[in-house]
Input
Amino acid sequence: MIKKGFKRNSIMVRLLFSMLAVLLIQTFLIAGNIWYGGTIEELNNNSVDLLEKRVFSRKNYLQNEMIQRWSNLSKFEHDIQTAMDSYLEEKEITLSTLKQEPHLAFEFLERTVDHTIFVLRQRMVTGAFIVLTGENGKEHPGVYIRDLDPLFNPADNSDLSMEIGPSAVARKADISLGMGWSPRFTLSQEDDSAAFYYKPFLAAQENWSNDISDLGYWSRPFMLSEYGFEAITYSVPLLDIEGNPYGVIGIDLTLDYLRKMLYYDEIADNKQGAYLLAISHEDDMVFENVISSGPMFNKYFGDSTKTVLDGNIKYENIYKIKQGKNNMDTVYGCVHYLDLYNSSTPFEKDRWALIGIVEEPILFRPARQIMLYVVISLFLSFIAGMVGVVLAGMWFVKPITKLVGNLRS
Output
């Protein structure tokens, strides 16, 4: 009975198998064309290009702020130099005398506090300072004024605090004293937190240049005191008529303020990206972390102080980021360097970079979504095709089967 039925339907079976084979070949050809024809690769390239454009745009914005606004201290330097020349002439003293007489340095700082406040407001930074060379090498007269919200500028100085400086200066400017206030700077050359002073000062001593913009130094993050805020600084030396340094002026940017400018939500949808501002040495792929934004960075790297990139790249400026052994997820970093220093200057080997960070599944999500949709579509098409083939086969074979049956009768 079964054998008879099988023979009776052998034409239909052969026809069905032939049509199904054609359907399978067609399905594989479509899938292969999508996968190997460059469609997926093109989608991945588009995702990488989009990431690159976003990071590059953010890098340009940050670089412009750091160069054109925050580190543009030419007027501040000119005002302090002019004030110093006038003060020395008025008192009929030299810089050497000023260095030996702290009360004269304090009086000078009192006279110039308005210049310090002006640069604080004008440059929209969170801190501004003047440090004069002290007599004993560690104790230095100076002022350090803080503004935690540069975007808020009341008519008075109620939003400012003086972290370091003579109390007379604070009274003159009607500025409150900070929680960790100190009358003078205590700086040690062995202490990394004093690099903002010693780096440009020593570079000037070594006669690198008489142009202070070539001697400017962007520092690593540090805290001025245990009650202070972690910040980076930009500082330049004060030079006398012979080109010898007698102090340093500069500005600071707290990390909290800087973090607000790193909009990590633009990296990927649903805030699944992160930004990292970091420093490498020359062409090294090991970066010192300066500041990060976005919870995704903490998820993968926690409070690590360094980030290591894999030198082998498939896409331009896109690197794999090396992680701990316990984390097997692939994370990519898009690196764009900031041009903060001129060539042949003392700090040109410090290469600041903005790194946009995103997980591999997030970066290449569009291609994966397209592939998923294609697979689902092909599967549904194959099922529909099978049903159609069976129905068509039954419809096509039915007259033949009927004719065979009549002949046999």
